[in-house]
Amino acid sequence: MITNLPNLLTLFRIVVIPAMVAAFFLDFPAANWVTFGLFVTASITDYFDGYLARAWNQVSALGRFLDPVADKLLVSSAILMLVATAQITGLAVVAAVIILCREILVSGLREFLAELRVSLPTSKLAKWKTTVQMFALGFLMVGSASPAAIPSVEIGFYALWLAAILTIITGYDYLRVGLKHMAGSA
């Protein structure tokens, strides 16, 4: 019997990352779609692991630790894969770097605040940022394999910039809260 399905969903999100990256490098026309399918499946678990943990009263320390780590690993791996294969190029690389820098900043901030026994809960805007990131990365993964009527690359680039803007806003919000605690602990 599965004792904690939410944690298993979170672990699945981590385990699927190497398969997702490997699928992108396969040499057949549907490789983009296989990658996209794995990414979407992993992204959906991001919603359900937290929802089920709260609904079934299975919130755990492991889940609280693994969930943001799994999110960051999935997004970072997707961005690195898309940059490495020139699916993200030019100025869009700046948006990707903004997203990666914010992820590292917030991780470090959470670690620092944990030492002070201060939690840094995820804001609603940060959840929207994650949704926009997943949306953007999914469109970029499909890329030119999408039907001609759907401009996946353009949608992905615009959404990536929107995610970068939300990333700056939410990163600033988290940093502002963290700096208050840093000043108080000095």
From TrEMBL:
<comment type="pathway">
    <text>Phospholipid metabolism; phosphatidylglycerol biosynthesis; phosphatidylglycerol from CDP-diacylglycerol: step 1/2.</text>
</comment>
<keyword id="KW-0472">Membrane</keyword>
<keyword id="KW-0443">Lipid metabolism</keyword>
<dbReference type="InterPro" id="IPR004570">
    <property type="entry name" value="Phosphatidylglycerol_P_synth"/>
</dbReference>
<protein>
    <recommendedName>
        <fullName>CDP-diacylglycerol--glycerol-3-phosphate 3-phosphatidyltransferase</fullName>
        <ecNumber>2.7.8.5</ecNumber>
    </recommendedName>
</protein>
<keyword id="KW-0594">Phospholipid biosynthesis</keyword>
<dbReference type="InterPro" id="IPR048254">
    <property type="entry name" value="CDP_ALCOHOL_P_TRANSF_CS"/>
</dbReference>
<dbReference type="InterPro" id="IPR043130">
    <property type="entry name" value="CDP-OH_PTrfase_TM_dom"/>
</dbReference>
<keyword id="KW-0444">Lipid biosynthesis</keyword>
<feature type="transmembrane region" description="Helical">
    <location>
        <begin position="156"/>
        <end position="175"/>
    </location>
</feature>
<keyword id="KW-0812">Transmembrane</keyword>
<dbReference type="InterPro" id="IPR050324">
    <property type="entry name" value="CDP-alcohol_PTase-I"/>
</dbReference>
<comment type="pathway">
    <text>Lipid metabolism.</text>
</comment>
<dbReference type="GO" id="GO:0008444">
    <property type="term" value="F:CDP-diacylglycerol-glycerol-3-phosphate 3-phosphatidyltransferase activity"/>
</dbReference>
<keyword id="KW-0808">Transferase</keyword>
<dbReference type="Pfam" id="PF01066">
    <property type="entry name" value="CDP-OH_P_transf"/>
</dbReference>
<feature type="transmembrane region" description="Helical">
    <location>
        <begin position="132"/>
        <end position="150"/>
    </location>
</feature>
<keyword id="KW-1208">Phospholipid metabolism</keyword>
<keyword id="KW-1133">Transmembrane helix</keyword>
<feature type="transmembrane region" description="Helical">
    <location>
        <begin position="6"/>
        <end position="26"/>
    </location>
</feature>
<dbReference type="InterPro" id="IPR000462">
    <property type="entry name" value="CDP-OH_P_trans"/>
</dbReference>
<comment type="similarity">
    <text>Belongs to the CDP-alcohol phosphatidyltransferase class-I family.</text>
</comment>
<dbReference type="GO" id="GO:0046474">
    <property type="term" value="P:glycerophospholipid biosynthetic process"/>
</dbReference>
<feature type="transmembrane region" description="Helical">
    <location>
        <begin position="73"/>
        <end position="100"/>
    </location>
</feature>
<dbReference type="GO" id="GO:0016020">
    <property type="term" value="C:membrane"/>
</dbReference>
